[in-house]
# Entry
Amino acid sequence: MESSSPRSALRPTATVNHKHSQKIAIVGAGWAGLSAAICATQAGHQVTLFEASRHWGGRARSLAVQGKHDAVLDNGQHILIGAYHQSLRLMKSVGVQEELALWRLPLQLIKPDSTGLVLKNLPFPLNLLWGIATAKGWRLIDKLRLLQKAFEWQRNTFSCDAHMSVADVCHGLTPTLMQDLIDPLCVAALNTPSEEASGRVFLRVMQDALLGPAGSSDLLLPKQDLGQIFPHAAIEWLQSKGVECRLGARIESLQWLENSTPSWQVDGAFFDRVVVATTASEAARLIEPFNATWSAQTQQIEYEAIATVYIQAPEHVQLPHPMMALISNKQAPAQFVFDRGLICQHANTPGLLAFVASAVREIKPVLEDQVMQQAKDLLKTLGHVEHDAGQLQLIQTVVEKRATFACTPHLKRPSATPYPSMSVCGDYIEGPYPATLEGAVMSGIQAIQALKKLL
# Structure
């Protein structure tokens, strides 16, 4: 596990060095592959980008609504936080203006009954002290225990033994704190239940969010669909720099040209270096002929599913906050709900709600029935008439069965360098972050840095 801050350890360079310019093939155009392509181009390399599907952005992309040709949703309701410095830096480098693309809001985990925590845009520990002091629905013992635990984490430099789970590092917190704060944060950051999730990775995310500059814990909610937030802008920027971007180009195999320069043949073209930026299963397939051990390790990664259930409420329905935490259990699987009408105002979708359920185990029809009931209960709790709840309509359910790896203690993630002149990037690659957009972006930067050491 890295201990250095990503703000200093990973810094994309815009320095062009034509003396060491290489031809680099990047296979995969999710957020990791796009990040690698941007960094390689900034470093002066000749890049060709291959994407097997018919869209850019991987699992974080825009999605057409079934039966509605003019409507666009997201392939899952993603969020960022202020501590995602690498993502924000790369977005800016390709011309994305944060204030136009993202809402920046203080971290808030507010439930429908108005209880919960809100952090103010202050440096640590003032942000936490203010949030705890003003938290609604918490007893004095809850607040004191959380303060005690937060300073215990700080004394231990936000580190713990590798075998410890999030539940272990939070031992001593009250059931109210676990239900209202830790469980939602853990699911949001690691997509894994607290009793199963890695305490070490959780603490790393908490360190960056709580101890970073003011605003590090802020929620960044997309004002636009995910395609506009980064993938489309990245492709336009890359093409403006002369990068060849091939959509619908599935690579069946990689050919290593031993004792030859260039060293690789990809889709009939020759390259000095290769970056594999595909899903873990596809990377394992491509790399197995060169490193069977790496491939076997990658294939052993266990996955968690994430579901986003889009439900249309009457147009006059509006949540009190753009994002709200929900009480989740086996009968109520969604942990969060987002008001798309509030967040994506340009899309003109008033009343459209996105319910997000991480670590989903239910089959799709059962999941939809359960989330629909959650939506009805939510409207009743917020004071809407029964007629409004009766008008709820299921729009679309997006289930990513391999959306994220199970971020458990002792998880052995594959390295970024399985073979000479080859590197791999993706949120599943060894690194300090869980399977998040920031983790993917960081791995893309790391992949180019790893190749640089071989030049």
Remarks:
- The two ends are 26 Å apart (CA to CA).
- The first strand starts at residue 23 and ends at 27.
